[in-house]
Amino acid sequence: MPDTVMNNREPFDPIALSVIWNGLLSIAEEVGSTLRCTAYSEAVREAQDFSTGIFDRQARLIAQGNFSPGHLGSMPYVVQSALDYHPPESLKPGDGILVNDSLLGSGHFPDCFLITPAFLDGEIIGYIVNIAHQVDVGGAAPGSQKVLGVTESFQEGLRILPVKIVRDGDFDPDMLRLILGNIRVPDKVRGDFRAQLSANTTGAERYAEFFKTYGAAQLERAFDAILDRSEDRIREVLRGVPNGTYSFEDHMDDFGADTPPIKIAVDVIVEEDQITVDYSRSSEQVPAAINSYINYTRAYTLFAVKVFLDPMLPQNAGGIRPIITSAKEGSFFNPAFPAPSGGRAALQIRMFDAINGAFAKVLPEKAMGAFSHWCNPNLGGLDDATGQPFVVYDLIFAGYGGRAHCDGVEALSPVMNCANIPVEVQETQNPIRIHRFEMIEDSAGAGQYRGGCGVRKDVEMLNSSTTLSLLSDRHKYQPYGVFGGEPGQLAETILNPDGNAEPLGSKEMRELKQGDVVSYRLAGAGGYGDPKDRDPQAVRDDVADGYVSAKAAAETYGVDVE
Fold first, then answer.
1. Interval 58-77: pLDDT, tens
2. How far lies 429's CA from each of 41, 383, 423, in Å?
3. Lowest-pLDDT choice from 239-253, 364-378, 403-417, 508-522
4. Where do the domains of the chain lie?
5. What is the spatial distance between Cα 143 and Cα 344, in angstroms, rounded to a whole number?
6. Under 8 Å between Cβ of 222 and 16
7. Is the pTM of this model over 0.85?
8. Cβ–Cβ contacts within 10 Å for residue 22, how many?
9. CA distance linking residue 182 with residue 335, whole number of Å
10. CB of 478 within 8 A of CB of 492?
11. What SS3 class is residue 556?
């Protein structure tokens, strides 16, 4: 990359540009840390299911915090939609716009975006944006992510088109009352809304100070330079990738009992310094709440492409210019409203896996075995002890796929930047008891570099009645291995594993009673390379760590550890 970027035929000092860029990142990260530290729910505070971004006065994405790609990649389109409803000239200091619409937002109602204009001397200088996954926004089941039996988005909860909910620095009390009156856990949502407002207020103040320090003229030139440099870098890397169409297909289990699998097909088309990811050969939209609206499809497409081209490149409006996402209208990855989509989070890893499979054909050194799929169950009901509704929002993450030079890591969030929620937090706040949270031996896909292990989490219901909304996958289609690596072990969900051990479907709804135990068992991740080429000492270490049994070491790797 050149040390200077030409803007209006003038060079921009690289040191000054670096200082400005890191200042922007600092503001974005501070918005995130403020949100996390002041949040009320375990979804935001512990699982870190939120994101932040900074936009200039032209509503161009300039910088983002290091948070969730599904949110980050949706933000540019969300902000533009919000400003179509509320033009800049209609906004005042202290205003804030809230939106959670599936089509305009990041694909499902729980994701609530708050957009705060930043002012200096009465003029808008940019926008501070954050998004947090609210643990409930109403609808047919606790957690607002019911997949089965939902045929249109109007059944999924409270739909909020862009509304000016914050005025004079605080929430409009009537509007807030209307929203909280339609959800199961108003105290948690109220607390997280206030955390979002506090975070954006902090960000707007820091951003205004930033403008006072460097001046609007210099910063706007810097913003142009940052965006142009990001675009130039992506195009430069693309020119090093052979032109062609690289395709891959995979499948989601189904969208309910006795339904066909959902086909996930991508064609990655590289043409000089532009890339198109086309999902048009995938399934049509389905009558269940698992469709992916185009903003969400774009978000994870942008992320996956960026990972393969230059993972360290900042994600901003410049870096996404050469990347085109295509899916025919009415298809699974571009459904027509009001297609239901509450469970669309199950798709994020699978979009990445499909693009990874395509890139493996042209960039093998950057590819990996498929991720273990994750599990996002929601539990809820009326708490026997308090008589109040409760919602248990859970995130369970297992292993990464094996890579060209190392094994897949264990129990880490793939492509989402969230976290496994601590057992102690969940047991303290909800009527559940967690019996196990452990790696599953022999679940990882074997390879020269093995995949990460699957994870088992057994949860007992302490309440007299609880509704389970299960959101998982890989019960039928194993996470694939690459270049001779073996696939990971299938996932499964078992009700009462020490009793009648009833298997559950990956998207099942079930009414549970006190004493029932749900055992979530995530798939292992795929391996990379021939298992016979694995270092024997690495196999022995795996046996010592409990990842691989002595029997599997001998049969799969040819290593005797007895």
1. 999 999 988 888 788 899 99
2. 10, 11, 10
3. 403-417
4. 6-230, 368-562
5. 13
6. yes
7. yes
8. 11
9. 26
10. no
11. helix
